[in-house]
Amino acid sequence: MAVIVKEIIIKAPPEKIFNFVMDKNNRLKIWPSLMEVKNEELLPNGGYRAEWVYKIAGVYFGGKSECIDVVPNQKFSVKYEGAINCIMTFSLQTEDDIRTKVSISLDYQDYLRLFNRVVDEFSHRRNEREADIVLANLREYLEKN
Fold first, then answer.
1. Do the beta carbons of residue 10 and residue 138 sit within 8 Å?
2. I need a surface site. Which of 15, 57, 70, 133 has the fewest CB within 10 A?
3. In the chain, which ranges are continuous DSSP H helix?
4. Which helix (DSSP H) or strand (DSSP E) does residue 41 occupy?
């Protein structure tokens, strides 16, 4: 497994960020390779369970996800299973009255790879870029509203 951790500062309170990201329609806005979220159901822990469709290098893959740890306005972790197996954790830490540090941690096992170093490195770089884009998109949506 590989781990990727990315952080960004967003001028918004943790509550606003948490509520935005937990909304499946907003996840589609900020996550460029996420094509569809369907059959979403709310869970007693305040999270969700859903099916997803992801596009990698022009190929569509599906799977299921479930929030396994939710602390409102502080963090949540989602376990993804399917062609891509990953535990993604969003953490929110108040910096001051108007800024929040948002961290994404991806702990993933990519079963699409061909078990060679070149593909592993490509997959890791792709996942790093995706995390950077998600955070940048999140900041753009939240700071203009």
1. yes
2. 57
3. 14-22, 24-30, 117-143
4. strand 34-42
How many alpha carbons fall within 13 Å on the CB side of residue 74?
Answer: 4
Q: What is the CA radius of gyration of the chain?
A: 15
Q: Examine the pLDDT at 42 and tell me if it is beyond 70.
A: yes
3-state secondary structure of 130: helix
Q: Which CATH number fits domain 2-143: 3.40.50.300, 3.55.40.20, 2.60.120.760, 3.30.530.20?
A: 3.30.530.20
Ramachandran region of residue 94, left (φ > 0), alpha (ψ -120 to 50) or beta? beta
Q: Place 51 in a pLDDT band, splitting at 50, 70 and 90.
A: very high
Residue type at position 116: N
pLDDT at 136 over 80: yes
Find out whether 111 and 85 touch, Cβ atoms under 8 Å: yes
- The rounded mean pLDDT for the chain is 87
Helix axes 117-143, 14-22, angle to 10 degrees: 120
Residues with Cβ < 8 Å from 86, sequence gap 6 or more? 79, 80, 106, 107, 108, 109
What are 137's two structure tokens? 């998109």
